[in-house]
Amino acid sequence: MNTIPLNQARTLTLRILRHNPTDPDSEPRLQDFQVEETDAMTLFVALNIVREEQDPSLQFDFVCRAGICGSCGMLINGRPALACRTLTRDLGDTVVLAPLPGFALIGDLSVDTGKWMRGMSERLETWIHAEGLETKNLDAIEDAMDPELAEQLYELERCIECGCCVAACGTMQMREEFVGAVGLNQIARFQLDPRDTRSDSDYYELIGDDSGVFGCMTLLGCDDMCPKQLPLATQIAFLRRRMAAV
Ligand code: SF4
Ligand code: SF4
Ligand code: FES
């Protein structure tokens, strides 16, 4: 039920960049949709109303609606953010929406972050490297990890691969092969993990150039825009020092 007092109720205009790259007749264009604002409305809810009641062809992604899956990243008034975690009451009467730059466009507000993240993950080998993993007894009880270290690992594991840091990154817009703050954060996570036997020299092979940590201009758009508030600035500075010492 809408509990916004009548004299404060707003009609929102969602101005959406529409384009279907698979349709040869499609031209990128802005299209306006009007939605009546309700109490505690998120942008995700507003977009659903548009799709259900006005234009079923509108493309955008969501799964969890709770800031967990990372699917609903988009440019909201020019800033990368999650639609499901953005309250319309924090926005003006007109909201301009566009797809995240830096990723292949699927259509309208939907981009293929999954393909980019998989490529980054394969390139940076974001999995535990250890001897004898193939023959490890998976039923055996794992060695206990120091709780403080586990907490540090968990902090970096909170990344939901939403792509907001990639979209906010000036280097990414200039250098397609740059691994982004999300990739550097992954390396910082495995570097911290005592189960991973890779040395700093091994990590240098992965990120010790302009497509890795030395390509970062440290303007920290990633740190400002990460919806999970990951400590990206700290991790990038830490990796830069470690890699410079190799
Ligand atoms: S580091 Fe933050 S902004 Fe980047 S992908 Fe992970 S959660 Fe999203
Ligand atoms: S600090 Fe580095 S990774 Fe972060 S947005 Fe700037 S260039 Fe990109
Ligand atoms: S729908 Fe999952 S993060 Fe927004």
UniProtKB/TrEMBL annotation:
Keyword field: 2Fe-2S, 3Fe-4S, 4Fe-4S, Iron, Iron-sulfur, Metal-binding, Oxidoreductase, Tricarboxylic acid cycle
Transit peptide keyword on record: no
GO biological process: respiratory electron transport chain; tricarboxylic acid cycle
Binding note for cofactor: Binds 1 [3Fe-4S] cluster.
The 2Fe-2S ferredoxin-type domain, residue ranges: 12-101
Presence of keyword Transmembrane: no
Cofactor(s), by name: [3Fe-4S] cluster; [4Fe-4S] cluster; [2Fe-2S] cluster
GO molecular function, one term: metal ion binding
Pfam family, one: Fer4_8
Signal peptide as annotated in the record: none
Catalytic activity: a menaquinone + succinate = a menaquinol + fumarate
Record InterPro entries: 2Fe-2S_ferredoxin-like_sf, 2Fe-2S_ferredoxin-type, 2Fe2S_fd_BS, 4Fe4S_Fe-S-bd, 4Fe4S_Fe_S_CS, Beta-grasp_dom_sf, Helical_ferredxn, SDH/FRD_Iron-Sulfur
Record domain 4Fe-4S ferredoxin-type: where: 150-177
EC number: 1.3.5.1
Assembly information from the UniProt record: Part of an enzyme complex containing three subunits: a flavoprotein (frdA), an iron-sulfur protein (frdB), and diheme cytochrome b (frdC).
Family: Belongs to the succinate dehydrogenase/fumarate reductase iron-sulfur protein family.
Protein name from the UniProt record: Fumarate reductase iron-sulfur subunit
